[in-house]
Amino acid sequence: MAYRPAFRAFSRSLSFFRQLPSSSYFSYSTAAAAELPLAASSPIQILRTKAEVRHWRAAQTLAGNSVGFVPTMGALHEGHLSLVRSSLRMNDKTLVSIFVNPSQFAPTEDLASYPRDFDRDVALLSELEYTPAETPKRIAAPEANVDESVLRTTTKVDAVFAPSVEEMYPSGIPLAVSEQTGAFVTVEGLSSQLEGAIRPQFFRGVATVVTKFLNIVQPDRVYFGQKDVQQTVVVKRMVSDLCYGCAVVVVPTSRADNGLALSSRNAYLTDQVREDAGAIFKGLQRAVDVYRTETDAGKIIAAVVETVAEKIPVEEIEYVCINDLETLEELERVHPLKGAILSLAVRVPNSFGGKTRLIDNVIL
Ligand code: AMP
User: Fold this and answer.
1) Which residues fall in a coiled-coil region (predicted)?
2) DSSP reduced 3-state for 305
C-alpha cells in the first residue's frame, strides 16, 4: 500500500501541492459481512442461477438478438439507469445484474451495511423503456412494404440476474485474500495504484466477478460508468487480454444538481455533507479550466485541491492524481494530444459517525 506520509506532514500547506508534479495520498473505510436480496414480483424475469441465464442467452442467440449487459451492485440510482438506457438503445435485449460482490470488499469494509433494496431496484428497472426516434433505415425503405410503427419497437429491461453468493462463489468466498482458494483474476499493472493502493483486493474482486459474469452472460456489449474510471481501464484491458468478444461501453458520469457524482454510498451522507461535496466537481471543473493553458500536472492538481479544500478539510483529501488513460502511469505533464485522467478520492463524514470515501474524475 502506497501511503505517503509526506502528505500528512504537509497537508495543511496548500503551497505543498504546487511543488508536486502530481500526487497521491491515502487512507480507509469500515465494516463486516452480509447477505442477499429476496425475490420481487415484477414483469422483468428474475434469473437466479447460471443455468437460467445460459438458457436465456441461448434463446437470444437463437432469435438473433444482440445482448447488452449492465453489472451493478444494486441500490440503483440515475447513474446506473443511464447505463441501462444506453444498453436499451444499443441492443435488442438488456440484462442487468444485481449482486453485491463480496470479493471486492476487504474485511474492514462496508459489505454488511452496503445499501440493498431489491424490490425498489426492480421497480426502477421496470419503468425504463426506450423507443427509437426513427425506424431503422435498413428496414424503413419504402419497398420493404411494412408498417413502420410496428418496427419502432420499445425495448425494456428483459431480465435481472440476481444470484446468491453461493451461486457465484460455489467454493465460498472468505473476505481475507489470504484465506481464499481457487481461481481469481488479476489485471497486473493497473490494479495497485489509485483506488487499488487503498483497496488492495478491490480490482482483483472486480476483475474476478466481471470474468464470471462475462462467461455466464456472453454479452455483445457490457456497460460501465466513467464514474469508476480505473475500473473501466482494468476491465477494458482484461477484456482485450483475455480475448473476450464483447465491446466495453463507458457511459458518462451522472451527477446531482450541485455536480456531486451519484453513488449508492451517497445514501450514507447528510444533506449538508452532500451539498458541501459539490466542491469536488467544482474542483475538477476548475482543473479543466486551468488545463486550457497549463499542462503541468502539479499546477492542475493544486487547482483541484484549493477548490475542494474550500468545503472539505485538506487532510481528508486522500489523493488527487493525473494518470495516463491506458497505463495509469502517473504523469508530471499532460500531453495535449494524448489527454489524461484526473481523479481524486476524499473522505467525508457520514451519518453513522464514520467516514465515507467519495471518488470522482474527469478526462483532460
Ligand atoms: P456499482 O453498483 O456501484 O457497482 O455500479 C455499477 C455501475 O454503475 C458501474 O459501472 C459504475 O461505474 C456505474 N455508476 C455508478 N455511479 C455512476 C454514476 N454516477 N454515473 C455513471 N455511472 C455510474
Assistant:
1) none
2) helix
Q: Is residue 335 annotated as part of the catalytic site, yes or no?
A: no
At 24-77, the pLDDT tens digits run 322 222 233 334 444 445 589 999 999 999 999 999 999 999 999 999 999 999
What are residue 94's DSSP bridge partners?
A: 68, 157
* Of residues 326, 78, 46, 99, the one with CA closest to residue 206: 99
117-149 residue pLDDT tens: 999 999 999 999 998 876 555 555 555 565 555
Check if 22 has its Cβ closer than 6 Å to any atom of ligand 1: no
Q: Is 104 in the pocket of ligand 1 (CB under 6 A)?
A: no
List Cα–Cα distances, 163 to 67, 121, 132, in angstroms.
19, 15, 31
Q: Which of 83, 195, 249 to mutate to test the pocket of ligand 1 (most atoms within 8 A of CB)?
A: 83
Q: Does ligand 1 lie within 6 Å of residue 261's CB atom?
A: yes
264 CB near ligand 1 (under 6 Å): yes
Taking the CA atoms of 200, 203, 207 and 208 in sequence, report the sign of the dihedral they define. Answer: positive
Whole-prediction pTM value? 0.87
